[in-house]
Amino acid sequence: MQTRFEKVSFSYGSVHALTDVSFTVPTGQTVALLGANGAGKSTAVDLMLGLRRPHRGTVTVLGGQPAAAVAAGRVGAMLQTGGLPADSTVGEVVDLARCLYGKRRTLASILDLAGLTELQRRRVDRLSGGQAQRVRFAVAMAGKPDLLFLDEPTVALDFKARRQFWKTVKSEGNTVVFATHYLDEADEYADRVIVIDRGRVVADGEPAVIKGDSSLEHALVELTEEEL
Ligand SMILES: Nc1ncnc2c1ncn2[C@@H]1O[C@H](COP(=O)(O)OP(=O)(O)OP(=O)(O)O)[C@@H](O)[C@H]1O
């Protein structure tokens, strides 16, 4: 039931977004895709969601085709560009997601999970950036997914909200793949870190090993500078 990339390449015209990328995401692990802006993280997530197809190589999600895993409702995703329907309330948006996944959870339990109970009647176009992120998270969790993709999930969140977010994610026990350019976030919350530098995997290992690997200085120094 693994999720894996085998020698995957993808280009946007002449831009090589991913080149010969291979990695495996074992069940139950939280894996960080760590890289600077433009490294290829979102492209990798798009491929795992079946939104794009690799030009070379194979992407397997939960043991099969990405689109099949998504269609079966086994995958949840929180993307950078997840728009929310402006005229709707938080409760309506979350309930719609819940119904699309066959009501695997009660509305109250999803709202509680994402810390949205108090905001249930608020229109989504009247939310702060961090509150809107929580709605995207609620939508991603609505179907009790086996596998969760998070593309830079905590960008709009303050320190406290970021901690709470990860506590919730971890308590759910899904397999998680998250894209981040925060070295500290990868170090703290991932079981494994895959470093992508200009479309290539340059390291794959435990967070402490990645942090201490001086041969990754180029990729990691850039990341650290961005965090400042
Ligand atoms: N739709 C597109 N058309 C053309 N080039 C694209 C497109 N989307 C991404 N790219 C390019 O592909 C490369 C990888 O982009 P990608 O968005 O996957 O990186 P990323 O690591 O997710 O970056 P960020 O941290 O900024 O979100 C970059 O050079 C980017 O400019």
TrEMBL record:
UniProt key word Lipid metabolism: no
PROSITE patterns according to UniProt: ABC_TRANSPORTER_1, ABC_TRANSPORTER_2
Residue span, ABC transporter domain: 3-223
Gene3D superfamilies cross-referenced by the UniProt entry: P-loop containing nucleotide triphosphate hydrolases (3.40.50.300)
One Pfam family it belongs to: ABC_tran
Keyword Transport applies: yes
GO-annotated molecular function: ATP binding
Location of the protein in the cell: Cell membrane
SMART domains named among the record's database cross-references: AAA
Keywords linked to the UniProt accession: Antibiotic resistance, ATP-binding, Nucleotide-binding, Transport
Membrane topology qualifier: Peripheral membrane protein
InterPro entries according to UniProt: AAA+_ATPase, ABC_transporter-like_ATP-bd, ABC_transporter-like_CS, ABC_transporter_ATP-binding, P-loop_NTPase
The protein, known as: ABC-2 type transport system ATP-binding protein
